Amino acid sequence: MNFLIMGPPGAGKGTQAEALVKKLGIVHISTGDMFRSAIKKGTEMGLKAKEYMDKGELVPDYVVVGMVKERIYQPDSVRGFLLDGFPRNVVQAEELDEMLKEAGLSLNAVINIVVPHEKLVERTTGRRICRSCGASFHIMFKKPQTEGICDNCGGELYQRSDDNETAVNNRLYIYEANANPLIGYYRAKGLLLNIDGDQDINKVMEDILKNICA
Ligand code: ADP
Ligand code: AMP
Description:
Helices cover 50% and strands 15% of the residues.
């Protein structure tokens, strides 16, 4: 089974993806995580991507498309995958269709997490990420057992450099400019599942599972 999870920054895509891939035994492909990992390793692509990410802008389509294509062809993807953070616009969606077609694959559903705009700034600015395993926490809504320490692996929690109010507002603006055409693209294909993301984290998961298994 191959899925895509979409929604604005802070909607809860990463949080749900982390649990969903464990439950379904599929691979999590997060373009944001891939860029953060490239930055950590100091690769040329990572350094270039950081310039866009810190300002809350999209990394150019050709860079992200090439990176996803390479990832989808890795052998573990045959277990099924959950794409998170890609595609971000219709050009990327068309490129994804093309690469899936070439690989003889298709999407089973597109999970669209819907959260009111006014909740997204507090979700993103309060987010904390584990430096080692990438797990996501929140200073109010998903507190780690020990402040600053990851519950999963004991790693150090940090705040993403693009989770400040200026970059978040830019990311929300860019999301909103691209969201309707992208949502329309997948609705027309009959793949779109709208999920209310403004609920308890476990309830959101329940709704996702109910919908993808329906
Ligand atoms: P995204 O991947 O869509 O940007 P995340 O999954 O990282 O979003 O979630 C953003 C922040 O909001 C994180 O700090 C996370 O712990 C918190 N969060 C996720 N889902 C919920 C929810 N349903 N209610 C409250 N906070 C949430
Ligand atoms: P995310 O972790 O999904 O919030 O993404 C963090 C940042 O990585 C975004 O603000 C973009 O700068 C970049 N990024 C991630 N995915 C994409 C994509 N599909 N297209 C362009 N830029 C992306």
